[in-house]
Amino acid sequence: MQIPANPLVVQLDIPAYTYGIAILMLVMVLHGVCLLQIAKRYEVKAYLYLAEKKYTAVTTVFYLSIFLLLITHLFEILIWGLFIYSFGLIAHWSQSVLFSGSAYTAIGFMDDTLPEGWRMLAVIIAFSGLFSFAWTASVMISMTKSFRKAYTRIHMHKLNLPQEIIDRFE
């Protein structure tokens, strides 16, 4: 994409703010939809499996949900990479995805190779990653309650504790 000739627009990184905030909003809406779907399905399955005393199934669904959360983050990195590549900010697809991942995770292992007028985009990508990771962490914490309940009951069975004691455990 051609940057406007106005030097003030370039100096203020207006294209980065304009397009970056729009993509940030898209990524956050997508993240919210995915998180709610994953968490909802996990909570329902975990509740049913706990009621049926299928404790191993709860742990399986927990780890599957964690994997889906990871896939959600990777997909968001791909969205940022696609945006950077389609606007011609980085010439190679693989480099744009790598740059996006570097910024999204706030690790910053790549040099900022974005052209003038787009440098603030790396910060906006980092904000989207920070927001997304925090949101994911809160969902994971809520999922942990039923996981720990199932995990503890599995070990109570291994210890051959009486069923009435296991049933009283909350």
Automatic annotation (TrEMBL):
The chain crosses the membrane at residues 16-39, 60-85, 120-143. This is Potassium channel domain-containing protein. The keyword Metal-binding does not apply. Keywords: Membrane, Transmembrane, Transmembrane helix. It holds the Pfam family Ion_trans_2. It comes from Polynucleobacter paneuropaeus. Residues 73-144 form the Potassium channel domain.
